[in-house]
Amino acid sequence: MRVTVFGTGYVGLVTGTCLAEVGHQVTCVDIDQAKVDGLNRGVVPIFEPGLEDMVLANHGAGRLSFTTDAAQAIAHGEVLFIAVGTPPDEDGSADLQYVLAVARTIGRHLSRPAIVVNKSTVPVGTADKVRAAVAAELSARGSDIAFEVVSNPEFLKEGAAVNDCMRPDRIVLGSRSAPAVETMKRLYAPFNRNHERIVVMDERSAELTKYAANAMLATKISFMNEMANIAERVGADIEMVRHGIGSDPRIGYHFIYPGAGYGGSCFPKDVQALERIARQAGYEAKLLGAVEAVNTAQKDKLFALAERHFGGDLRGRTFAVWGLAFKPNTDDMREASSRRLLELLWNAGATVRAHDPEAMHEATRIFGQRPDLVLCDTPAQALEGADALFVVTEWKAFWSPDFAALKAALRAGVVFDGRNVYDPAQVEAAGLAYYGIGRGRSLQPR
Description:
By secondary structure, this protein is of the alpha/beta class.
C-alpha cells in the first residue's frame, strides 16, 4: 500500500520505517529541510535501538523516502498518517496546532479518496476537528472528495519502539466506517498474523484509550513512589515490598519500580492533558492530580537525600551523575529527572560531572557550556574529583561497577541510587554510604 506519514519524530519515523519494513511504499514528510536532507543521507536524528539499520535498509531499497513537499506526499498516499507533536499548552492541555495544520494541508492538496489517520496522542474529539479541518479546505476548493478519519493511537515505548511497532500487543482502530477499518486491517495485516491484535472501537474511545493507558502506567509509578516514601519512614525495604506485591498476577511486576520520578515525552504531558480533558467535561480527576503531584515531588528526592547527608550545605561540592536520559536506551531528556536534579545542585552551589551513554549531545543542546557542568566521556571520568555519585538512569553499563574503585574515587564515599540498581549491603561492604529510594535503611542511624 502507499502510505504517507507527516512527522519524523519518534512516532512518525518508527511507524513509517516499520510499515516500509513489511513492504509498504512509505513517504515521510517534515517541514525541517535539514532533518529531511539528513534522513535522505542516512542520518537518523534520534537514538532508538534497531531504527538506524532499518531506516538505511528500507531507504536503500526504495520503500522509504523523505520529503518536505507535502503536496507530492499527499498525492502519493492512500493512507495519510498524522504523527506530529502535541506539546502541552500553558494550561496543560494538548496543543493541536500542528495536528490541525497537517489536516488543513491535506484538505488543500487531496486529489482522490484517502484515509486520514490520527497517530498523534490527541484529546477526545480531535478526530472530529481533523475531519472538519479537512472538509473546510475541500469546501473552499469546491471539492467533494471522499475521505475518512481514523483514530489509531500509538503504544510505543522509547527504547523499545521498533519492537513494539513490529510486534504490537494491540492495534487500536477508532472508526465507524467499515471500509476504512478494512483498509487499515489490510495495512496492518503483516503485524497481525499470529493472533488477532486489532481492537475496533469508535474514534472517541480510541482517543481516550491512549490517555487512559499512559495515565494508568504513570499511576502505578507514582503509587510505588508513595510506598517507597512510606517504607523509608517505617524502616521497610520497598524492593522487598515490590517482590511481595509483584508476584500477585492482578498487580504484576511492570511499572512498579520506585525511583526518582518519571519523565519523557508521554507520561507527564498525557496525565496533564487527561486531567484537563476531564476538567473541560466538568469532572475533577483528583487521582490524576495526585499522580502528577507525587511525581513532581519525587524529582526532588535525590537532592533532599544529598542535602541531608551533607548537613544542608552543598556549596563547593562536586557530584558525579550517571545517567541524563529519562530512561535507558534513548537520548531523550524531555522531563528527565536528571534535569531537575542538576538544577537543584547548581542552585545550591555545586558542580556536576555527568555521563550518559547516548544523551551527551542532547545535554549540550539543552544546557550549553557552563562552568558548573562537565560532560564526561566515560563513567570513570565523571567520578574524578567528585564527592558523591548519583545514579539517575538505570543504563546496563551502570549495573555492576567496581565498588572498591568507587570508594577510592569518591572523596566523601557516598552513592545516591535513584533507581535502586544496587544491593545496599554490597555497597556498604565496600565502605560507601548508600542511599536508595524507599530502602528503609536510608533513614536509619549509621
